[in-house]
Design a protein that fits this description.
The complex is a heterodimer of chains A (383) and B (687).
Chain A: H1 3-31, H2 33-43, H3 45-52, E1 61-67, H4 72-80, E2 86-90, H5 95-103, E3 109-113, H6 117-123, E4 130-133, H7 138-164, H8 185-216, H9 218-223, H10 229-259, H11 268-292, H12 296-312, H13 325-331, H14 335-348, H15 353-380
Parallel strand pairs in A: 1-2, 1-3
Antiparallel strand pairs in A: 3-4
Chain B: H1 4-10, H2 13-17, E1 24-33, E2 36-46, E3 51-55, H3 62-69, E4 77-82, E5 85-86, H4 90-97, E6 100-103, H5 117-127, H6 132-145, H7 161-173, E7 179-182, H8 191-208, E8 211-216, E9 227-232, E10 235-240, H9 242-248, E11 251-257, H10 260-269, E12 272-276, E13 279-285, H11 289-300, E14 309-313, H12 317-331, E15 371-382, E16 385-396, E17 400-405, H13 411-418, E18 426-431, E19 434-435, H14 441-444, E20 447-450, H15 462-472, H16 477-490, H17 506-518, E21 524-528, H18 536-553, E22 556-560, H19 564-567, E23 572-577, E24 580-585, H20 587-598, E25 600-605, H21 609-618, E26 625-627, E27 630-635, H22 638-651, E28 658-662, H23 666-686
Parallel strand pairs in B: 3-8, 3-9, 6-7, 7-8, 17-22, 17-23, 20-21, 21-22
Antiparallel strand pairs in B: 1-2, 1-4, 4-5, 9-10, 11-13, 11-14, 12-13, 15-16, 15-18, 18-19, 23-24, 25-27, 25-28, 26-27
Helix pairs in contact in B: 5-7, 7-8, 15-16, 15-17, 16-17, 21-22
The chains are: A mainly alpha (383), B alpha/beta (687).
Chain lengths: 383, 687
């Protein structure tokens, strides 16, 4: 018998063993109604909810108006604070009452227009208005203030133009929004949500499966059988990455592209291959997490602790460039950081393999490191 | 023996002062979980002052029944009355809860592991609103009776299994209930602690005037009860006083010494036979000793040389239970009856494994020679605790080797080192000739392992489990299918192939686990408490399969068990104590050693047993132990001892006892050995 055919037989056996374990994982998952429900939810309904919920625009913010001037200019100003951004309500000129309304969240901000507003305005003097903003939600507070500021600036410019009748040099900005021409929030929001959910599922599913084997003692039966730690770990990773791949296909193809009209500019083959790679990378992290946990409760907490920073620091919800330097280093260890670039690149920008090769390579390296760590720790945890 | 329960009840003032109604009265009760009928038309009565036993394997319905009595589970039909109160609503259950104590199944499950012994007791006392004035003396008394007083400050999680159960009992008794319901308090507890637990319970029942409803899966504990019900799949098979049940069964046990060929003939005639080297044990349906002996002689044939020696003895409860189960099995024709010697019945499509398949080569092929397992000074430390201490033993191919020991003696750790799950801290464990520290995949293919807990996938079906492990062992699809069929036949699992493993009764689960461990035809088999919780028939079938594997295929089998009756079936036994192997011999040798050292076993029947025990201990039998309602003493000279026993009893004002000579069991060997070792360890610690 030649060495080659002996090797082929050995490899066939090796793969048969892994295949048996992968099949087992799928069967077990399918019989776990709660887990199946969870997976179905995060790849369908959850994405739909994300499409509708997180408006980063200002919508119908309730603004209280105290107009002490009662002039044409003040009414003009009030008129410009309009729907859909603002919902202007006249409020009583009573400081205590206004403060209470701000406290209760009935008003986002209160705009006070003083007596001599129009006079100053018409004369070209500096007119003063007061805006009190409820900034408990600082982002929203910032939006209210900046929208109001922009409206005031436009109004002031128009008045001064009408008064001086001098033609001033003008710069007109012509913005073209590439990859999302209409700046549709849902595109960005659903992709972010999908990335988060892929991460959660990829880490949680293999970690939970691994800990369940420890809890029920089934792991011992695997330990005494002729399986290497790599085979056991790999089977978990492959099986759960497969589940995530199917889930992502449904989420991207059916829910996002089909239902919500999110574009799919790049190659589906490239995208889903990279999803599988990412899922395996994150699964490796799940396996590592499972080696530290003794019970399902513990693994749940560890996964929570992992997922939070990974998503917060990945640039899904905020900009990497705006973080402090030490955090930026930590971000480089988050596999999601690379997958974010890949996903936006392929889905929206139509990037090809060459364009995403670098983040993909870094991600795979990270994945291999997780897998190596998980495999090494897997054996050690029983000693 | 008959009538003892009524006499016990009669002397108790509590029984006189209350109405003579039963404490627990169940009439036709049933309980269903989904499609499964857990309790089916059960009626029974527990009288005041009784120690009432529910005996049966896992899934017999004992726990459901006890929970219904304790008022924590509603019944579907029938009536439950406790203290004369009909339990038909939450409110009714609340009315009796103050008067009863319930200890759920599971070692220390009702305790808080982080709290100390005293904190646990105080917590239960507060829960039950026991006043501080009442608590202090009661706690002191209970702690002293259970000998836990020295461990007040120890956290519950650091107690041994036996101590946890004793603490559980104290917590159950802290509000001075009149009825206690204990669900399998001795399961998973080693024989020494078990015997201790029963002795304490007997004292408590006597001192606190309790009524107790206790369940157990160990049939050899049955003789400890005043009255009992044998349960099987939700039904009561037999109910009554143990002695009456045995007397009314119409069964005799014949111990036969004859040629192996003649013994094999017995198997064809009697449903219950067991064979050990040169001797057979047969259960005969007969109303007296003579006709039983005649039936055995007829079965053996008249031309036997030498003439077989036949000794007729009364049956024990296990014989009775098995006979009843066999009658049930015979009535339900769907399940084949076990083979005469308790083997799995060979199935029509079960062929002997072809020699061409892997692993069926003769043992001599392996470079380990005839030594399947060779443990050399195996040692394992967990932090500062030495779980296994220089354990050495050898197991040969074709041998069934039993590893016995109390909880925490190091049995499971030793097995884990030999299967390569745990690396030893020192020493070498060789299996099939290879050092398990560097165990490669090749060596793992020669090992089969069944761990203590059921370690198959409960959410996969029987067939899926089998095919999974076939795949894990790298079998091809065709090999896997044929081996899976073989395992189904071996375990008599026909008709269950598509059932989830989690829904199988204990006995079938264990046989499935055995099948999974044997799919790849290992040469060495490790079984860690393989039969705990399995009904007697299931256990006998399991042992039949083991014996066949060892004898016919030369498989080496190393197993641990808490059933001392099973220890008798091993070819060789190593007794472990505090991590060390303290004895390594055949069961017969171990028994002979004890006889030579301490004398023969005398069973003393005297009433009341507790007073008699005290009298004997005062009269020079310091090591007398309570065994059920009888006392066991060891003595070299039976006649001389008999006189001393009668003198001791007379001095205490008790009637003369009936004394019979008994054969030693492995339980006697185990308990005497362990107690002697414990005493020596204590003496060393004191010095």
């Amino acid at each position: 018998m030649s060495g080659l055919s002996r090797f082929a037989r050995g490899a066939g056996r090796w793969l048969r063993q892994v295949a048996a374990l992968v099949g087992k994982e799928w069967r077990q998952l399918l019989r776990d109604t709660a887990l199946v429900g969870f997976v179905v939810f995060i790849f369908t309904l959850d994405i739909l909810i994300a499409a509708g919920a997180p408006e980063l625009d200002l919508r119908s913010a309730p603004i209280g108006l105290i107009d002490r001037d009662g002039s044409v200019a003040s009414r003009e100003l009030a008129g410009r604070l309009r729907a859909p951004y603002f919902d202007v309500r006249a409020v009583a000129d009573d400081e205590a009452q206004v403060a209470r309304q701000l406290e209760r969240g009935q008003l986002r901000a209160v705009l006070t227009i003083p007596h001599d507003f129009e006079r100053a305005f018409v004369r070209g003097e500096t007119a003063q208005v007061q805006l009190v903003v409820e900034a408990a939600d600082s982002n929203l507070g910032y939006l209210v203030a900046s929208y109001t500021e922009r409206i005031l600036a436009t109004l002031a410019a128009e008045y001064s133009l009408a008064r001086t009748a001098v033609v001033l040099p003008e710069v007109q900005l012509q913005a073209r929004y590439r990859f999302n021409p209409a700046l549709t929030e849902a595109w960005y929001a659903t992709i972010s949500e999908l990335l988060t959910m892929i991460t959660v599922a990829s880490i949680l599913l293999p970690a939970a499966a691994m800990v369940r084997e420890k809890e029920r003692g089934t792991i011992e039966q695997l330990l005494v059988s002729p399986l290497s730690p790599l085979q056991i770990v790999l089977a978990k990773v492959v099986a759960m990455a497969g589940v995530v791949l199917v889930g992502s296909t449904v989420a991207v193809g059916l829910v996002m592209h089909g239902l919500l009209g999110v574009p799919f500019a790049g190659s589906p083959l490239l995208f889903f291959s990279l999803v599988a790679l990412y899922a395996m990378t994150a699964s490796g992290l799940g396996v590592v997490a499972a080696t530290f946990a003794r019970s399902s409760g513990q693994v749940g907490l560890i996964v929570l602790l992992l997922v939070m920073p990974i998503t917060m620091l990945s640039g899904t919800w905020n900009l990497r460039e705006s973080m402090p330097g030490w955090l930026q280093v930590a971000i480089d260890l988050s596999p999601l950081r690379y997958f974010v670039d890949i996903t936006y690149g392929v889905l929206l920008k139509g990037a090809d393999l060459a364009a995403v090769a670098k983040p993909a390579a870094l991600m795979v390296m990270l994945g291999l490191a997780f897998l190596a760590l998980g495999t090494a720790r897997f054996r050690r945890q029983f000693r | 023996m008959p009538g003892t329960d009524t006499s016990v009840a009669a002397v108790r003032p509590a029984a006189v002062s209350t109405i003579n109604a039963p404490v627990v009265a169940l009439a036709g009760i049933g309980k269903r979980y989904g499609r499964m009928l857990a309790v089916d038309d059960v009626s029974l009565k527990v009288e005041r002052g009784q120690l009432y036993g529910l005996i049966g394997a896992d899934g017999a319905g004992k726990s459901s029944l006890m929970k219904m009595v304790a008022g924590v589970l509603a019944h579907d039909c029938g009536t439950v009355e406790v203290f004369g109160v009909r339990i038909d609503s939450e409110r009714a259950a609340e009315r009796v809860k103050a008067r009863l104590g319930f200890m759920p199944q599971g070692l220390g499950l009702n305790l808080y592991p982080e709290l100390s012994v005293e904190e646990n007791i105080d917590f239960f006392a507060r829960l039950r609103q026991v006043s501080a004035a009442e608590l202090a003396p009661r706690k002191q008394q209970l702690l002293e009776m259970t000998r836990l007083a020295a461990f007040r400050t120890r956290a519950a999680k650091n107690l041994s299994g036996g101590m946890k159960q004793k603490l559980g009992l104290v917590c159950t008794l802290i509000h001075a209930p009149e009825l206690i319901v204990l669900d399998e308090p001795t399961t998973g507890v080693d024989p020494v602690s078990r015997r201790d637990f029963w002795a304490i319970l007997a004292q408590l029942i006597d001192a606190q005037r309790l009524t107790a409803l206790v369940s157990t899966a160990y049939l050899d504990e049955a003789s400890r009860f005043d009255r009992l019900a044998l349960m099987h799949v939700g039904r009561v098979l037999a109910e009554g006083e143990p002695a009456e049940l045995v007397a009314a069964a119409g069964l005799r046990v014949a111990q036969v010494q004859a040629e192996p060929a003649a013994l094999a003939q017995l198997a064809a005639h009697f449903a219950q036979t067991e064979q050990t080297a040169g001797a057979g044990r047969v259960v005969v349906t007969a109303d007296d000793d003579e006709s039983a002996a005649a039936a055995v002689r007829a079965a053996l044939g008249s031309d036997q040389h030498p003439v077989p020696k036949i000794v007729i003895t009364p049956p024990d409860l296990e014989d009775l239970f098995v006979a009843r189960l066999q009658a049930l099995d015979g009535a339900a024709t769907t399940r084949p009856a076990p083979d005469a010697d308790g083997r799995f019945k060979p199935n029509r499509n079960q062929r002997p494994a072809p020699a061409s398949e892997r692993g069926s080569a003769p043992p001599s092929e392996y470079n380990g020679g005839t030594h399947a397992i060779d443990a050399q000074s195996l040692t394992r430390d967990f932090g500062g605790f030495r779980a296994v201490d220089r354990a050495s033993f050898i197991v040969r191919y074709g041998e069934i080797f039993g590893l016995l020991g109390a909880n925490g003696a190091g049995k499971t750790t030793a097995i884990k080192m030999l299967t390569g799950i745990l690396p030893p801290s020192a020493g070498i464990g060789r299996v099939a000739g290879a050092d398990m520290r560097q165990a490669g995949q090749a060596i793992k293919e020669r090992i089969g392992y069944m761990s203590q807990a059921f370690s198959l996938y409960t959410d996969l079906t029987v067939m899926e489990n089998l095919l999974l492990f076939a795949g894990v062992y790298g079998l091809t699809r065709e090999q896997a299918r044929s081996r899976a069929q073989w395992a189904v036949a071996l375990g008599d699992l026909h008709g269950h192939e598509r059932e989830p493993a989690g829904r199988l009764p204990m006995g079938l689960r264990q046989r499935l686990a055995l099948g999974c461990a044997l799919l790849h035809q290992p040469r060495v088999l490790f079984l860690d408490e393989p039969t705990s919780g399995v009904d007697p028939i299931g256990r006998r079938r399991f042992w039949g399969a083991l014996r066949r594997l060892a004898r016919e295929q030369g498989v080496a089998i190393l197993l641990t068990t808490h059933y001392m009756a099973e220890a008798d079936l091993c070819d060789r036994i190593a007794l472990m104590f505090a991590g060390r192997v303290v004895a390594d011999a055949t069961p017969a040798q171990l028994k002979a050693e004890l006889t030579a050292e301490r004398g023969q076993l005398l069973e003393v029947s005297a009433e009341p047993p507790l007073a008699a025990l005290a009298a004997l201990r005062a009269g020079g039998f310091a090591e007398a132990v309570l065994h059920g309602r009888r006392l066991h003493v060891l003595a070299h000279d039976a006649a001389e001892a008999g006189t001393r026993i009668d003198t001791a009893l007379a001095a205490a004002g008790l009637a003369a006892a009936r004394i019979t000579s008994q054969t030693l069991t492995m339980e006697d060997v185990f308990i005497h050995r362990v107690l002697a070792l414990e005493a020596a360890a204590l003496a060393r610690a004191a010095a």
